[in-house]
Design brief:
- The structure is a single chain.
- By secondary structure, the protein is an alpha+beta fold.
- 46% of the residues lie in helices and 20% in strands.
- Strands 3-2-1-4-5 form a five-stranded antiparallel sheet, with helices on one face.
- The longest helix has 13 residues.
- The chain is elongated, with a radius of gyration of 19 Å.
């Protein structure tokens, strides 16, 4: 029904913002990823929205990017995941991090999000597999399965996605998984 709002940012009260559109103030719930990237109060903002009508409420959810809204819509299709939990997931993980966790089947990353238990994380992994877009699943420099395995191992060892991706750049092209992990760990130790 309401697909986009453009107007002046009137209030910011996490996770809710108030957007003044020609004198009408719309209360919009946003994930923290969107909240942190909003302009200053009084400036113009444009949010893609998703309108949820329930028996007891009508709630508008807003997103700065199309992938965030698309991911939100995929999440709320899953049994046991409502709009509030989907918002929490998008606040705890970026779309790319979520897509990577799904593609690598890492329930541990999902369980770290408040409100997500082991069963819900496993359901998310199962139902979202292949639905969030392969282009978002792995960093651009992951060229093959060997590099994906090395990246997964580094993340499992506690390195951030960014650190692991940077370590992949220094690997020889023909490195196997075990040699690649050793090589990556040496470059990360510097």
């Amino acid at each position: 029904m309401i697909g986009r709002l453009s107007g002046q940012l009137a209030e910011k009260n996490p996770p809710q913002v108030l957007v003044d559109v020609n004198g009408v103030g719309y209360e919009v719930d946003v994930p923290m990823s969107t909240f942190y990237n909003l302009p200053a109060l009084g400036e113009r903002v444009s949010l893609l929205t998703h309108f949820v009508v329930r028996e007891d409420a009508q709630v508008l959810f807003g997103f700065l990017t199309a992938p965030e809204r698309t991911t939100f819509r995929q999440l709320i299709k899953i049994t046991g995941v409502g709009p509030r939990m989907a918002l929490s997931i998008l606040s705890g993980l970026s779309v790319a991090e979520l897509a990577q966790a799904i593609s690598l089947q890492e329930s541990g990353r999902l369980v770290k999000v408040p409100g997500i238990g082991k069963k819900t994380a496993e359901r998310l992994l199962l139902e979202l597999k292949g639905k969030l877009g392969p282009d978002l699943a792995l960093p651009a420099n992951v060229a093959n399965d060997t590099q994906a395995d090395i990246l997964q191992a580094l993340v499992a060892l506690g390195y951030s996605d960014r650190e692991a991706s940077l370590a992949l750049k220094s690997l020889p092209v023909d490195a196997g998984v075990s040699d690649g992990i050793k090589f990556a760990l040496k470059s990360l130790a510097r």
